[in-house]
Specification:
The chain has about 260 residues and is an alpha/beta fold. The protein contains 7 helices and 15 strands. The strands form 4 sheets. It has a 5-stranded parallel β-sheet with strand order 2-1-3-4-5, with helices on both faces. Strands 10-9-8-12-11 form a 5-stranded antiparallel β-sheet, with helices on one face. This is Two component transcriptional regulator, LytTR family.
């Protein structure tokens, strides 16, 4: 299932895009789920951190605000770095602003594009999402809660995940994001097939890929960015051994790869 969000205030353009997406889903033999917001109020109520979408089609000019699409894209990037963003707009001269706003958009499609080209570019967006899923399936943590995807983040970007003060909610601390979402640590640990996660107390798990040191005397773990977190006395030994073993494996692999390329020191 590919989850798609459309933010557009012109009903004709909504119908055109929705029709094409359903046609293409048949051609590509994929299932899609589309959520439509045709004003900013609907956007804020429907698109939130608690629902992750694979593909976002955003108009730039919404309710007379020519920067609305960029503002929405910036909000999306705060909690979903992997989502594919595509701007579909009449403001064809606004393309340079995509780079200025640093929102990593896949495409910028003019609404006045010919029907054949318009459909082809929408198809390319869907194919991009399909291919990205195939490439990332083993390296991305995708977590669903009650049949809704609430978290999608590369394993390598996660520092730690801990329980929130709010019931049934977790907080993920990443390299560039902090996000609260519904879930349980037990479910998260079950998704970790490569053993990257280690529990450091009853309410916190850390990603050993981003741990640089474990201080047994102070009973704390330090991440690559200098931040620290306390570790339970009963778990400090196992954590230190697991981190050291991981670093040994990484160093061995790096040295082996350098040797294969004939690099000598």
């Amino acid at each position: 299932m590919i989850n798609i969000a459309i933010v557009e205030d012109n009903m004709l353009h909504i119908g055109r895009l929705e029709t094409l997406l359903h046609e293409l889903s048949q051609e590509l033999r994929i299932k899609i789920n589309i959520v439509i917001s045709n004003n900013m109020e609907e956007y804020r109520s429907q698109l939130s951190q608690d629902q992750i979408y694979d593909l976002y089609f955003l108009d730039l000019d919404i309710e007379g605000n020519k920067n609305a699409g960029f503002d929405i894209a910036k909000e999306i990037r705060k909690y979903h770095q992997l989502g594919t963003i595509v701007f579909v707009t009449t403001l064809s001269d606004a393309w340079p602003l995509v780079f200025k706003n640093h929102v990593s958009a896949l495409d910028f499609i003019p609404k006045d594009e010919s029907e054949i080209l318009f459909k082809e570019r929408i198809k390319e967006c869907l194919e991009h999402v399909i291919n990205m899923r195939k490439e990332q399936v083993k390296e991305v943590l995708t977590y669903s809660y009650k049949e809704r995807i609430v978290l999608q983040i590369p394993f390598g970007d996660i520092l730690m995940i801990q329980t929130s003060a709010s019931a049934h909610r977790l907080i993920v601390y990443g390299k560039t994001i902090r996000k609260e979402f519904y879930g349980t640590l037990t479910d998260i640990l079950e998704l970790d097939k490569k053993g990257y996660f280690q529990k450091i107390d009853r309410s916190t798990i850390v990603n050993i890929q981003n741990v640089v040191s474990v201080n047994k005397r102070e009973r704390e773990v330090m991440f690559y960015d200098g931040t620290t977190s306390p570790v339970s006395r009963l778990r400090i030994k196992d954590l230190k051994e697991k981190v050291e073993h991981y670093h040994q494996q990484v160093n061995y692999t790096r040295e082996k790869n350098l040797g294969d390329f004939g690099v000598m020191f």
